[in-house]
Design a protein that fits this description.
Helices cover 2% and strands 38% of the residues. The chain has a four-stranded antiparallel beta sheet with strand order 1-2-3-4, with no helix packed on it. The chain has a four-stranded antiparallel beta sheet with strand order 8-9-10-11, with no helix packed on it. By secondary structure, the chain is mostly beta strands. A hairpin with a 4-residue loop joins strand 3 and strand 4.
């Protein structure tokens, strides 16, 4: 968890917020140098109602950005990761496969035999359902198995490839299975929602909505926000019924051109305490932020200062 952000100028502000000081009690004016390589936004988090923290790519550029004042500050240390939303988790230290809830783990190693170099698996918040992707994904033969953890029993199997979108990744959105299928070596993916019986509920967004990067955030019990891979729109969707409630255009984050968009999978999506969303831009608008009011669909863009 982040420390409470003290008002600028109060004693202890520099120390509390980890920004770089200049001399005694002064704070360095910060700007962002766009990286020459991939600039995926990492360690993104919302703090309070107006401040976001994030790092840019694998560089040591980490910032605290107050969207109310437009003040950007360089952080000495990377922001601490947010605590996991659920106590249940999958442990996949090959060949060990366990589903753990709190301090109790259920071993499925003898039941599930991975047929992939990298295991993609997930569990629901209660740790009672386990989903694993197996098969030859690159050949379009990837499939998902659903397991009852308590009984250590497989309950369903389904295939997930969608044309050229073959290589899968999986997560659990409460008790809904979220599966994204990518073009393997290409930054493009499509998402779909499945029930615990392996039945497809709906595509994420729509059939042409890209999900590469898998940026998403929960709004309430069944409603989730999904960021399109090029970060030009957000889909608000009920993951139980599959209905897309609305799609919010955030292309203004990338400029005035009608077809403006970001590099696929580089931008991040976070949620403020009041329910508003913030999209933190990757290239070519590194570090700028679109603040989205889900109820009204209003979008406000705050530009991060770039170094010249």
């Amino acid at each position: 968890m982040f420390q409470e952000v003290k008002p600028r100028g109060e004693p202890g502000w520099v120390e509390a917020n980890g920004v770089e000081p200049i001399g005694k009690g002064k704070v360095a004016a910060a700007c962002i140098t766009p990286p020459d390589i991939a600039a995926t936004i990492t360690r993104a988090a919302a703090d309070g109602l107006t401040r976001v923290h994030y790092c840019i790519g694998d560089t040591p550029q980490c910032y605290s950005f107050d969207l109310g004042s437009g003040q950007l500050d360089r952080m000495r240390d990377p922001p601490k990761p947010a605590p996991p939303a659920s106590a249940a988790r999958v442990e996949t230290r090959n060949p060990l496969i366990e589903v753990c809830a709190a301090d109790t783990c259920k071993t499925l190693t003898g039941k599930v035999i991975p047929n992939a170099a990298q295991l993609h698996a997930a569990t629901n918040p209660a740790g009672t359902v386990f989903v694993v992707l197996l098969g030859d994904a690159a050949a379009g033969q990837g499939y998902a198995e659903i397991w009852d953890v308590v009984k250590a029993k497989k309950t369903s199997t389904f295939r997930y490839a969608r044309g050229d979108f073959k290589c899968g990744d999986v997560a659990m959105l409460e008790d809904t299975i979220y599966l994204s299928a990518s073009q393997c070596a290409t930054p493009a993916a499509r998402g779909a929602l499945y029930s615990l019986k392996g039945q497809k509920i709906a595509n994420v967004g729509n059939k042409d909505f890209g999900v590469y990067g898998n940026a998403r955030v929960q709004i309430d019990t069944t409603m989730w926000a999904f960021l399109e891979e090029s970060a030009d729109r957000i889909a608000i969707q009920d993951v139980v019924k599959g209905k897309v409630v609305k799609t919010i255009d955030i292309a203004a984050l990338w400029g005035d051109h009608k077809d403006a968009m970001g590099n696929p999978g580089e931008s991040a999506l976070v949620r403020f305490a009041d329910g508003k969303l913030a999209v933190i831009a990757g290239s070519p608008a590194n570090g700028s932020v679109a603040v989205v009011d889900v109820a009204s669909s209003e979008v406000k863009v705050v530009r991060a200062p770039l170094c010249h």
